């Protein structure tokens, strides 16, 4: 869309039907700028009044608005037209005959009749019983599929409320599925399932809605192929190397629980001592992760061919939601207002206690992070995706581990190890994004002789096997610093780790 902000002139304020135009007030300079730019997504030139004007107005109204200049050739030459008052009356009549009527503003500038169609808020609009949309520099009639897609895009049809014909009541509404759902949704004991589902609007005319199918599914992909969620742990800071991958495809609430459990298992956990014992503290606030996960599942576009994805990198956790923002939402509205893409499903989540207060999700996520003492997530929005990124406090943890390693007196095996450590750190600082050069240097020196897992963890003062394996051991193996002494049996109780030729070469150069 042409950005009119850089054009001179004041903005039109079309108060009719509450429509406010983002197009500049017309004057000779503005007209000259528009004609110089040529026809495009928001501009149409006409030498004279034509019979297809209604189609053009309708197409602009269904898009983001636009300007039609009558008295300008296709090449942008201003030729002007006569009888402007008569033409204005005709244009108003055409705009009012659309269904629903379309608000327009008109001005006469340098012999040209300038018709401004602000972005409308009563979409979709039809003219002569047909729907039109702006595509590039032309207006096209929409096909049946395009009209259907347009209704979905504008939020006029909610996919979660549409019938799911693949769900068969006699086959899929099993006692197990109902018991699981009834407990979550607080259905009174003994209430007839059909009556309850109808009262919750999950069952319409004997056919289950998609929201109902997702809540009662044994395998959600049976009804919506891409409704599952993929969770992955990735090495380093890119998606090149996948360390662990899980696809969750149960009912939609179980998928949510599985994703939360996965994040809890893969993120680091600290043990905080206190007078009564000690508490576990996840590196990121669990409540914020839960809220973000609910948002991703509840607000995603279930017609998309993509899945919700959770990516755990060394430095961040990303929750990727397909579909962009729902119709009626802008990026600046995040944290201020909420427009559910799937209101029936979202309402059920609220009933189940998965959503505490409708419309406060982003605000609560940010507050949870502030209260927890970690960075707030970064939310990136595009037409097809919303990505919520939680920075992991790994850099601080890494600095603490490095400091511990530096001060571990039992490590030094010969007088010049401290000097060797400094040199090794310089040699290795740019070789990996997963483990700091300091840690690599420590392990390289320590593993001149084969070492067992517990020995290496001891020198790094690490107690959690999963953290050590994913954040340190596996990257050192993948980068070729360490190798197994029993490679054919990775889980052998006799397994130890030693320097590879790469590591020995570094030590040889150091000795020289």
Mass-distribution shape: extended
CATH top level class name of the largest domain: Alpha Beta
Helix content: 25-40%
The CATH architecture of the largest domain would be: 2-Layer Sandwich
The DSSP helix count reads 18
End-to-end Cα distance, whole Å, is 64 Å
Which parts are unreliable, with pLDDT below 50 for 5 consecutive residues or more? 1-22, 395-416, 429-434
> What is the count of β-strands?
19
Which properties best describe this structure?
single chain; 512 residues; alpha+beta; Methyltransferase, Cobalt-precorrin-4 Transmethylase, Domain 2; Heat Shock Protein 90; 6-stranded mixed sheet; 4-stranded mixed sheet; 18 helices; 19 strands; 37% helix; disordered N terminus
Task: Give an overview in words.
By secondary structure, this protein is an alpha+beta fold. The protein folds into four domains: 4-153, Methyltransferase, Cobalt-precorrin-4 Transmethylase, Domain 2; 160-222, no CATH class; 229-392, 2-Layer Sandwich (Heat Shock Protein 90), CATH 3.30.565.60; 395-511, Orthogonal Bundle (Arc Repressor Mutant, subunit A). The protein has helices at 28-37, 53-62, 84-96, 144-153, 169-172, 175-184, 193-199, 210-216, 252-266, 286-299, 343-351, 361-372, 394-406, 417-428, 437-446, 453-460, 465-478, 501-511, and strands at residues 43-46, 66-70, 105-109, 112-117, 126-127, 130-135, 138-141, 203-204, 207-208, 229-234, 242-248, 269-274, 277-282, 308-312, 316-322, 378-381, 385-391, 482-484, 497-499. A six-stranded mixed beta sheet has the order 11-10-14-15-17-16, with helices on one face. The protein has a four-stranded mixed beta sheet with strand order 1-2-4-3, with helices on both faces. The chain has a three-stranded antiparallel beta sheet with strand order 5-6-7. It is extended and about 95 Å long. The termini are far apart. 33% of the residues are buried. Mean pLDDT is 80; it is low at 1-22, 395-416 and 429-434.
């Amino acid at each position: 869309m042409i950005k009119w902000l850089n054009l001179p002139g004041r903005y039109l304020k079309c108060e009719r039907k509450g429509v406010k135009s983002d197009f500049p007030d017309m004057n000779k300079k503005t007209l000259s700028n528009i004609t110089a730019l040529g026809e495009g997504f928001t501009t149409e030139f006409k030498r004279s009044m034509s019979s297809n004007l209604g189609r053009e107005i309708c197409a602009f109204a269904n898009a983001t608005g636009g300007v039609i200049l009558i008295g300008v050739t296709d090449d942008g030459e201003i030729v002007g037209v006569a009888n402007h008052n008569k033409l204005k009356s005709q244009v108003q009549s055409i705009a009012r005959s659309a269904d629903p009527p379309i608000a327009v503003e008109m001005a006469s500038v340098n012999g040209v009749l300038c018709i401004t169609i602000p972005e409308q808020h009563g979409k979709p609009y039809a003219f002569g019983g047909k729907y039109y949309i702006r595509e590039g520099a032309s207006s096209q009639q929409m096909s049946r599929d395009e009209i259907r897609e347009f209704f979905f895009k504008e939020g006029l049809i909610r996919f979660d409320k549409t019938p799911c014909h693949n769900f068969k009541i006699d086959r899929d509404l099993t006692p197990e599925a109902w018991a699981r759902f009834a407990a979550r949704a607080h259905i009174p004991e003994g209430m007839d399932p059909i009556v309850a589902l109808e009262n919750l609007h999950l069952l319409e005319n004997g056919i289950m809605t998609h929201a109902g199918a997702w809540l009662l599914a044994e395998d959600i992909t049976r009804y919506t192929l891409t409704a599952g969620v993929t969770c992955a742990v990735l090495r380093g800071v890119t998606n090149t190397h996948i360390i662990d991958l899980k696809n969750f495809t149960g009912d939609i609430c179980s998928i949510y629980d599985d994703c939360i459990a996965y994040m809890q298992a893969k993120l680091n956990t600290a043990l905080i001592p206190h007078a009564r014992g000690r508490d576990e503290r996840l590196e990121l606030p669990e409540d914020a992760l839960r809220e973000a996960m609910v948002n991703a599942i509840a607000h995603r576009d279930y017609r998309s061919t993509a899945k919700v994805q959770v990516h755990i990198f060394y430095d961040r956790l990303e929750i990727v939601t397909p579909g962009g923002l729902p119709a009626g939402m802008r990026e600046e509205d995040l944290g201020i207002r909420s427009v559910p893409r799937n209101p029936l499903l979202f309402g059920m989540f609220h009933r189940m206690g998965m959503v505490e207060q409708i419309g406060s999700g982003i605000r609560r996520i940010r507050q949870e992070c502030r209260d927890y003492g970690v960075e707030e997530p970064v939310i990136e929005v595009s037409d097809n995706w919303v990505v919520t990124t939680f920075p992991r406090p790994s850099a601080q943890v890494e600095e603490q581990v490095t400091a511990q390693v530096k001060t571990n007196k039992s490590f030094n095996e010969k007088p010049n190890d401290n000097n060797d450590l400094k040199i090794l750190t310089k040699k290795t600082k740019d070789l990996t994004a997963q483990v700091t050069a300091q840690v690599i240097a420590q392990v390289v020196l320590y593993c001149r002789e084969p070492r067992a897992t517990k020995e290496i963890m001891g020198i790094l003062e690490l107690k959690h096997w999963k953290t050590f394996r994913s954040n340190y051991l596996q990257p050192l193996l993948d980068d070729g610093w360490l190798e197994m002494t029993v490679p054919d049996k990775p889980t052998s109780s006799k397994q130890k780790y030693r320097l590879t030729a790469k590591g020995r070469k570094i030590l040889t150069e150091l000795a020289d």
